[in-house]
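Task: complex structure prediction.
Instruction: return structure tokens for all chains below.
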Amino acid sequence: MNDPTSGVTHLDIDAKESTFLDSSELILNMGPQHPATHGVLRVILKLDGEKVLGLECVIGYLHRGVEKIAENRTYAMFNPYVDRMDYVAAVSNGLGYCEAVEKLLNVEAPPRAKYIRVILTELNRIASHQLWLGTHALDIGAMTPLFYTFRDREEILKIFEKYCGARLTTHAFRIGGCLYETYDGFEQDVRNFLDFFTPKIDEYEELLTTNRIWVQRTRDVGVISGKDCIALGVTGPVLRASGVKWDLRKAQPYAAYKDFDFEIPVGTKGDTYDRYLVRMAEMRQSMRIIRQAVDGLPSGPIMAKVPKVLKPPVGEIYHSIEAPKGELGYFIVSDGSTQPYRVRVRPPSFVNLQALDLMCKGQLVADVVAVIGTLDIVLGEVDR
Amino acid sequence: MPSYITSYLEKSVQVTPGEAGNIFWAMVYILCVFGGVSLVVVCMNWLERKILAHMQIRLGPMRVGPHGLLQPIADALKLILKEDIIPEGADVLVFWLAPLIILLAVFSVYCVIPFGPTHAITDMNIGLLFMLGVSSLGVLGIVMAGWASNSHYPLIGALRSSAQMVSYEVAMGLAVVSAVLMTSLNAQGTGTLSMIGIVQAQQAQHTWFLFKFFPLGVVAFVVFAIAMIAETNRAPFDLPEAESELTAGFHTEYSGLRWSLFMLGEYAAMIAVSSIAITLWLGGWMRPFPHLLTGPIWDLAFSLFPALTFFGLAALALYAVGRMWKVPYFRAQAIGLAGLAAVFGLIGFVLLLPPVRTGVQDVYWFVAKIAVFLYLFIWYRATFPRYRFDQLMRVGWKVLLPIGLIVLVLTAIAGVIFG
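Output:
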């Protein structure tokens, strides 16, 4: 057995390890059509009975060549494509891409656009965490929270729909600001949602936080230390649950985040239960940000002056934002033409997925499912 | 009419057909019980989906028939018509036998379940032992299914299942023994393992064993109630078929009719274990408060319950008809539902007739208690996350087993002191 703290080891499927009674291991293929691998992730497990000796992820079943597509599209044309990566947090993807190109063009979105971006992005963070909570609970065997979270997520999607006409892949932002002005009653809708959702979080927590089975299933499962997180590049709630206070919204404020007062929830042990608590607290913090943003929504233009044909100067840029799942970065190389020379995306799900092997070693099969759930991966983003 | 038919119709008969050696009536009872259980399983299929759906803020089946009432029939048709796949490399004979063994084990249990003092297929002096023994045979079917499928998920499911059975049978057995101990405290002073005898002992002692030596009876009942959920592989102990981990566990490779046999077996097992719990702790066929609320008025009041139940169902159906009639699209369905309401009403009226009324009392209360248990099964499924394998074993061996042992000892001591 490899020491889980020693770092990542590559699973050698053919290698024989001596186990109890020296029986050979069971190689179990989980996925890509498995109900709990969140899409088309394939995990090859090496098992000793129920115990996981090691695992290997096979990805690429949802590969669409998004980064290559970017090279054949203009900057504006590529914008909708990024929504299809992390399709449950499409707004965050759009925000990251738009800001990266804006940085490259050296333009800045007007304050009102920035505030609208923050409101929608934080709403999307709540929606993403709701989906995570529902599916994570379903993986652990609690069916019902899924339906509650989907019921409440609907309210967020309705706001998106009224704002830009789309619910999932919103394409809400444009390079230089926002295309759409807020609709009449937008602020009221958002405030109504905040009032509606506050008791709903309590409802979720009532179902799970003190539930004996839930606590037993999540506590000390998939433990990862802050050091290992940093070594593997794991970001987002997973990193924060391991006790590292790192949130790009505070560390490198983008959009309008420096105007708002909010806290970064951190965990202590870095187990699945901590990650659950961190994400629940994050939803509350997101609500705080949204309330401040709606209250202080400035007036003014929503679009900066950007040329009709975007021709960024020759150069390269890396811009990253705190997406619901972690650090979402865009590295864009411009050769001065209308199309990017190269776009490289640093997707949080892909990087976080690396930690799966480390977190699952020595655990049971049921924990693998729980850990996949707690990493909150979206395969559209892993494979791109 | 031949005497073997008439002899059993007389009022003086006090034994079950099996005991009396009356093969004709035993056969009738077997058909009634198996038909009834199958019918309940079909209803349960619909009810589980509906109740679960309403707990989860959705509607459940709504398309096939009014409120999806015909959904189980549609499902059954679909399952029968589906291709029956036997995976390559499977052990065909074992694969073929596994669902049958589960069904055989489950339905054999019904031989000794007493729906009334005479309403059982047979009564054995070792009825309880027979019941426990036969019902635990079901795990053989699961292991066979897991092994024969020649696939990893079913294999792990089968392994989990056998480990689960072993750890929960023990706690279950201890809880049962403490109830059996209580039977020896009646007037005659002799204990019994006969299912009918156990209920009669509760009758003689004027109490359900649930309340006997409070809280010992309750604790033993709770131990049994937890173990029986594990025994039937239902949430939160549904590890052998944990959907999110093992896709479908031991029946992953089964399809069509064979798969539906597993489902039939699972639901029938739920009814069977509920029956054991009811017989041992909840007074079997006895109506509530048989010794507290006595007298002809109370007898009459309680005897109206079966009819009232069916009138309630008819009223429910009529209410739905009233709502559906307003929508022209649902006219045909509304007419069908009205027919169902009429049938329920008719059954209700038949149940009002004095001879029928008294005749169905025992069966009615037994079935009503089963219904409560089945509702609890569904409720658990909507509420709890799933236990992990090692936690399940810990609950079985380190929590339930010691509690069962302590209750057993305390019951014995209490029996000596107060009995």
